[in-house]
Amino acid sequence: MEIRSTTDEDLDVFVDTVHAAFGRFPETPVEGGGLWWSALEMDRCLLAVTADGRPVGTAATHSFELTLPGEILVPAPGVTAVGVLPSHRRQGVLSAMMLHQLTELRARGEFLSVLLASEAPIYGRFGYGPATYTARLKVPRHAAALTVPRAGAVAHAPATGSGNGSVEVLRRADCGEILEEVYDRYRRAQPGALSRPHRWWALRAGQPPISPAPRYVAVHRDADGVPDGYASYSIESGTLTVDETITADDAVFTALARFVLGHDLVSQVVFQHVPPEHPLRWQLADFRAGEVSGDMDWLWVRLLDVPRALTARGWFMDGELVLDVEDPFLGGHGRYLLTVRDGKAACVPTDREPDLSLDIRDLGSVYLGGTAPSTLVRAGHIRAHRPGTATLADALFRADRSPHCLHWF
């Protein structure tokens, strides 16, 4: 078997192979684009080919930027379109492709990669760990009233006609540039968020509101008329479903939530992709009215160069830890002294006794601050060698805000 890079001429073969791997058929093109594979970068795709030339496996990466704690942007290859034909599963094809891909990414100088896992048990063995989480919040229309903040905050300002801003309803087809600009400002401030390259918007390759699927968009504008948030939504059978609410401002989120919760002729509102610990549920006058479901992992992170990764992100307290890190899939092992001073980290090899022993997948999970190291200690995955070490690690790896990713790829 050979694993080789693809060219533009391989697009049809690649697309047919990955669809066959998942037992599906390619969608019929629609006016305005919208096919997810139109965003593929063929020089970043791989084909696994048998000795007689038959394609049996696929893998690819997108060129993204990932926002780290501290509003630091770094390159982050987004692994996608990974599949093996049913006739060739459990024969080492997937492992060979993953090894080839990770080795290639390292050779390019990448220090991490990310993916969305189709099945949770698959990617841990290749060093990926779940790092951001998301959930769905369903609110019945009859119990959708928001309470007045007891601290006197401005988050309860009316969504329209106030000095704090206004909401305008537009069709998705009429506000593409606004969505792109607002999302880009948001993702630069949100840890765990991925960039959406312009070509994705231009090709409309993805899920709503990127795709051509008809949507209404509630666009929030500040007092000067500048768009600073949006909520993409659709209504079917009495349910208003919000694809995503994009803003870095809690007051703007509240204004958009108030707008959709007040929509007439719907029986319930469903917010997709609500970040963990988001305050919206607490803002409901009836706390029990908000039903949380679909709580799941979203972005998985894989570190390829531990010192570069740990020194790249921002930190919010001083301290030091000795980390003993195993990387079974790539055959690596390292012990590192992580020292944080004034928001910056140094990470160097050391022979000191470890404070924490952990697998590379566990380091990926805690890297963005969305998974507490103590949780993985209690789960038996990370070993804390001294009392208090897990508590220190929790405080040290904490992010400035909870990491969240809602981009699909």
From TrEMBL:
Residues 1-149 form the N-acetyltransferase domain. GO terms for biological process: aminoglycoside antibiotic catabolic process. Acetyl-CoA binds at residues 82-84, 90-95, 118-119. One of its GO terms (molecular function) is aminoglycoside N-acetyltransferase activity. Coiled coil: none annotated. SUPFAM superfamilies: Acyl-CoA N-acyltransferases (Nat), SCP-like. It holds the Pfam family Acetyltransf_9. Gene3D superfamilies: 3.40.630.30, SCP2 sterol-binding domain. The active site is at 123 (proton donor), 409 (proton acceptor). Keywords: Acyltransferase, Transferase. Homohexamer; trimer of dimers. Belongs to the acetyltransferase Eis family. This is Acetyltransferase. It comes from Streptomyces azureus.
